[in-house]
Amino acid sequence: MLYIVLVLVLAALGLLVTALITASSLWAWVSIGLSVLAGLILVADWLRRRRRSAPPAAAEPEPAPAAEPEPVSAEPAEKPAEEEQTVLIPAAGDLGDPAEPEPEPAPVEAVEKPAEADDETGADGDPGEEETPAADIAVLADLEDEVVVVDEHPRYHLRTCIWLGSRDTIPIGVGEARQLGFTPCDRCSPDATLVAAHR
């Protein structure tokens, strides 16, 4: 097809030159006609190629039937499975080999309590201190009545005190015991008993 167009264009060019040389308008009109014919052939060839390359027109799809609206449920829509699965990342410092056993806590060493801080009801604990009025303290300072003390224990007692049990006792005057820093036992109440005996 292109060869025909090329021949027609060359012929139109030759006739145009001839029309100029001979000054004849007939050859000029024939040259114009051949040029128009070559142009029409080119347009026809272009349309034919376009139809070949274009895909066949697809049939128009039928309109889908209108979907019925879903009933509105009072329950909230379920979340996608991806949102339901939450991965918990352990905080820094919590990561570790699960096969490794957890370290055992260090044993807490028992701190010995001073004798005065021991439980009053314990077998080795000291009893509480008897509260003595100031007037009775003045009376006790002059008394020489005997009380007993236990070595390394801060209280003084009457010999009948149940706390003494089988402990080794040291006899001492009540005034001297107070001067040495001993305090009265609240179980046998030596201060109240001695003051009441001297009044």
Structure description:
- It is a single chain.
- With 199 residues, the chain is α+β, with helices and mostly antiparallel strands.
- Among the domains are: 2-53; 120-197, no CATH class.
- It is 39% helix and 7% strand.
- Strands 3-1-2-4 form a four-stranded mixed β-sheet.
Short description:
It is built from six helices and four strands; from the N terminus they run ααααβββαβα.
What's the count of strands? 4
The Rg value, from CA coordinates, equals 63 Å
Largest sheet: 4 strands, mixed
Give helix % range. 25-40%
Mean pLDDT: 75
Task: Briefly note the structural class of the backbone.
Answer: alpha+beta
Question: What tags apply to this protein structure?
Answer:
single chain, 199 residues, alpha+beta, four-stranded mixed sheet, 4 strands, 7% strand
